[in-house]
Amino acid sequence: MATESPVVSSEGSIAVSMSNSPRLEVQTVSKQADDAASVESGYGSAPPSASASTARLPRVTLTPEHLRHLNKQLETMEPMDVLRFAKIFFPNLYQTTAFGLTGLVTIDMLSRLDREEQAAAAAKQTDKDKDDSKSDGKRHGVDLIFLDTLYHFPETYDLVERVRARYPNITLHTFRPDGFDTAAAFEAAYGRLYELSEDMYDYLAKVEPQERAYDRLEVVAVLTGRRRSQGGQRGQLDIIEVDDERGIYKINPLASWSFDQVQAYVREHDVPYNVLLDRGYKSIGDWHSTSPVGEGEDERAGRWKGREKSECGIHNKQSRYAEFLAAAAAAGPTTTDQQAGAAEVKAEASVSVV
């Protein structure tokens, strides 16, 4: 049975309520506070027509003052303490990861927290408790979400298996482009989409699978591996962000760490990592859009090199999600999704040729 906490309805205060659903849902205190929160968090409001997103917004409203207070406090804390806070504060917390170096550090830190919690629980247990719950506490506390685009490096897929072996208690949820399990099948439907339309590719391979993951798992908050030192749009990251377009919170526990700090942790704790890092790569995504970085280049300089792009869409405000749906709808009610996608790709390709 759901419990209800007090709802404070005065202007500018925080409204919190619980329901039977493990998800949370935003209760707007006032339009003014809502708009201010969007500015404070770095995200604008979703379009009024985006009913699929707004229907699942968190039922915890952080005012600008509260969000600012939380971020100020968390800024002085070590990543392990940020993770402790996140595990307590956010229900349905997941970690999104492509098994980059920062994400691997987060996995290891969470594993250490699990061991701490298990030891503390064991110390409090009576002999009867131990008999009744022999399997309790053995599970990795935060599940992982991996978006398999079908175009990761072989070294990345190998790393996934090594991580599974190192942390056998993790639960990994893998989401691929809808209806496809191999790159060959995907290309049979769309061709080399990453060459024809990056926006369409990003939507089909990353954004839509992410949306599906959030919906299916009823995600309220996610841990990310983004850091300020990665530059670009990430330079001003807060530790807690409100992504009101997707209806989730994003927590960046290692936002203040440098690449050197991350690498030092990996070495100190013998964390598995992608062998491509030993070959000049620093930020690793799909093989067709990732290259090594040169001396003195930014950490993410090897992503989409030579193009005016630094994000794939899953962290962008405008992810082309609405644009793709509009294009598919314009293709006609009897056209299949794949045919609509192919038509859009051809249209974009013809425009670029002209």
Automatic annotation (TrEMBL):
Any one GO molecular-function label of the UniProt entry: phosphoadenylyl-sulfate reductase (thioredoxin) activity
A Pfam family per the record: PAPS_reduct
Bias (Polar residues) ranges: 1-31
CDD domains, alphabetized: PAPS_reductase
Biased amino acid composition, Low complexity: 45-55
Domain Phosphoadenosine phosphosulphate reductase: 93-292
Top-level taxonomic group: Eukaryota
Record's GO cellular component terms: cytoplasm
Record keywords, A-Z: Oxidoreductase
Any single biological process term in GO: glutathione biosynthetic process
Disordered: region residues: 1-56, 287-309
Pathway: Sulfur metabolism; hydrogen sulfide biosynthesis; sulfite from sulfate
Basic and acidic residues biased stretches: 299-309
Family: Belongs to the PAPS reductase family. CysH subfamily.
PANTHER family to which the protein is assigned, alphabetical: PHOSPHOADENOSINE PHOSPHOSULFATE REDUCTASE
Name of the protein in its database record: Phosphoadenosine phosphosulfate reductase
Organism: Niveomyces insectorum RCEF 264
